[in-house]
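Posted in: Structural Biology > Protein-Ligand Complexes

Title: Requesting predicted complex, EPZ in pocket

I'd be grateful if someone could produce the 3D structure tokens for the following input. Sequence and ligand are given below.
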Amino acid sequence: MDKFVINGGVPLRGEIATSGSKNSALPALAAALLTEEPVTLHRIPRVRDIRTMQRLLVDIGAKVDVEGESVQLTTPRIVCPEAPYELVKTMRASSLVLGPLVARSGRARVSLPGGCAIGARPINLHIFGLEQLGARIRQSHGYIEAEAPDGLRGAVVHFDRITVTGTEDLMMAAVLAKGETVLRNAAREPEVADLAGLLIKMGAKIEGAGTSTIRIQGVTELGGAAHTIIPDRIEAGTFAIAGAITGGDLTVNGCVPDHIGALLAKLQQVGVEVTQPQSNAVRVRAAGRLRSVDMTTEEYPGFATDLQAQYMALMTQAEGIAIIIETIFENRFMHAQELARMGANIRLDGKQAIVAGPRELTGAGVIASDLRASASLVLAALVARGETVIDRVYHIDRGYEKIEAKLAQVGAKIRRVE
Ligand code: EPZ
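-- Reply #1 --
Done. Output follows.
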């Protein structure tokens, strides 16, 4: 198992590039199952979750050709409409094939995800939505079996709570349903709008993606298309925090600043100078002292839960008390104990983490527990005195493309050891 060895204390300076969005690329890859024609996707990040999704799609019947950051998928027919437990347990986003499979072939068998490091994360809302569209759902042996032999039919689906992949799954199911589907209380994340952009290029009729009401007029078939995935807002946000926490001067290139608007506003309150040298770049400069500022995670356009752990690392270096409230997942504070091992003063109280700073962090051996928790440990290590060894970095490899190489280019002393 690989580890990162990081020697902290170097302010990051220079320019760092953003890769394509993992959470946009995953549903886009699944959407290729909706047509027998080729779908070409550009700016696909080279991360482990993407390779896992490609493996799943090959088993289902897709031909997948990868060339650098571009992937072409062709699915002449669905050979095996199934997402097995072995894959779903390693990547929950595998459930994104449920909607496309039922829409294209009238049936799907997808393993239930089971427990997760950050919370319960059920898929009941995906199932509820498919039932509204007329699918018959059965659960047995840990699997969901969905059937719609005569096809799906449009319906109004009102989500009980906002779900990102649930909205994406249902949108992919509804594009081939008979008649109109209306998704209410839909997720407004940029990844949902990006998926809609791809589906529209494939011939789907979708209005309102990016708002909480999405209207879809079903069509009888979709065709091939080419699409470029949006930049990864969570990676961009992680780098912005890296610039801030190290007291550096870092320009994050190739991002969409609006997509991290909530974070950038917070960084300014914290005392970081934030500018936009170009429409697709953000420069962060942190010369003086940082102030503690409370933060509550919310659905987009609120502060992303996927940046909560990284923000907590930043607050260990800010003066005062910051109350961080996690509202999306019930167990997403695993990084707090590891940060505490490095010297942070963090008290957990249910959904709240109370961070008192600034505290000098010192290098230690720590364990990555999930993707974003790992990113927060990298950030803490970049500012800690001495050497930090982060174990189980396979978590970070799921969602960050060559993070150690990118950070090293802007001055970080980070290396990967086997
Ligand atoms: C997506 O997960 C992202 N994953 C997550 O990214 C992200 O943390 C999350 O959205 C929230 O922004 C992908 O896009 C592949 P949800 P998703 O359904 O769709 C509850 C990362 O680090 N819920 O929006 O699985 C759920 O338990 C990650 O890249 C139900 O109760 O999240 C949670 O509390 C991890 N029933 C809340 O809704 C359901 O059927 C939001 O989850 C579905 C969800």
